[in-house]
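Provenance and format

Records in this collection were gathered into a single text stream. Each protein contributes a sequence line and a token line. The two records reproduced below are adjacent in the stream.
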Amino acid sequence: MMILLNPEEYAKVCKCSLELATKRCTYYENLYKKYLEAVCPTCNAASDNLYYDDDGKIDEKNIVYIRCGNCKDTFSCSDARFRDWVAGGGLLDPVLDVIKYGKFSVMGFAYDDLSEEKWLQFVTESTNKLYNDDL
């Protein structure tokens, strides 16, 4: 997580400009802040009381939901009130994923598969997508 909050380190590791790194880190930092600001709609408990749980059924369709550890209420993962909590809790940066996992990344290719120009194009397009996509 720390690299997502440090543009200089991000730029070095991800082989991109400081400007792109700053845009990416700012996006993830803001998303993480929203994650931390989430509260239980029932009892107003802080985000550290929220967690994923399931219905405990084995060999059947297992339903995952969000539970408040304070009041024990459960909520659907698609509940709009938890949008930022869900998005911020599973921070996945596709650029870091490619650097770390290569061909096994969610993108299916490695950094070395691309020319420097194609890599920068990928990072730039990915950055633009962060700010243009509705989570």
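Adjacent record:
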Amino acid sequence: MFSEQLALCKTCTRIGVSKRRKANRPYLIPSPKDRFLFYETAYALQTRDFVSRDLFLSLKFQNEKLLGRFFILGWKRLLNLWKADPPDCFVLVPSRAKVGPKPYHAAWAFHDRLKNGQNMREDTSLRKISKDKQSEKRFEDRFFHAKKAFGFTKSDRIIEGLHVLLVDDIFTTGASLNEIARLYKLRGARKVTCVVCLLSGVIESNGCSSQG
């Protein structure tokens, strides 16, 4: 059934799903040492390989929505990691300034599990205010762009003292997530945790991040 929903052959699905279930997921993303971090921890549900790379491109750019389920395999293990200090609310990181023709966010499946399955409150006050796409920026430019890319539209939401969970589709440099975490810390968030569907970037042995 899972193979049919993903439109993949049964052999590839069986091998891919089996490997990911046995793997150490979710993957704790090493903390980059080339910047000050405003989030406490970051996790990736999948890491990039030749299969996940192509599937993610189909999910994000070819409207293959059902593939979103593939990229959240193992998400329930996060609940055990958060048992001592579960998030109070979650934020789906916006990818565009205005709602366009794309009908869903690449992390829609995880969003649904948190909101409908775990009854976690969603904070929708974050907006992307820059029309530029982060994915089109060079490595260094991503950090400068992130500084002016996001803002809040509703300042009356109570964030002070809360554990905020940031949900995004992909971690390349982590620039956007770190900037959003900074904004939430300025509003009084006690703790910020990040979860992404796919880790695409690389944290080098010297602690610096790269696009891989």
